Amino acid sequence: EDLGGAMSFAWALVNVTAAAAAAGDVAAEVDRAAPVVAAAAASAASAGSATLTLPPFALRAGFTYDFEFTATMAADPAATASARAGVEVLEEPIVAVIAGGDARRYTQGAAIAVDARGSLDPSLPSAPL
Predict the structure, then answer these.
(1) Which of these, 60, 66, 72, 111, could form a disulfide with 80 (CB 3.0-4.6 Å)?
(2) pTM above 0.70, yes or no
């Protein structure tokens, strides 16, 4: 990947679209995602890397993100090429977990507690269910 400074690379987030259910959230999502992508792009550029690496959950489910990659020859800045790619982030199903498993036996009259606190939404792991 290191081409000895022969090329420079740049990444940019050029568009964000949403599924119909999240249509009103596009502007807010651009405001949230753009700085994260810009920081990752700056890191890649300073490392001379053609790879954009985003942290987990940098992109949110329900949105499609369009990226543009540009490569430029250091010896001839007019020699440049760009490509675009769209990344659709899909929602994962909620994971339901019952502590102790799904089969229990209790005696009649005993208090019964079913603990599902281990359940989670993999698309938003820090959000409570």
Answers:
(1) 72
(2) yes
Tokens of 76: 């001839």
DSSP letters, the chain, are: ---TTSEEEEEEEEEEEE-GGGGGGHHHHHHHHHHHHHHHHHHHHHTT-S---PPTTSS-TTEEEEEEEEEEESS-TT-EEEEEEEEEPPPPPPBP--TT-S-----TT-------TT-B-TTSTTS--
| Unique residue bearing structure tokens 């964000």 | 16
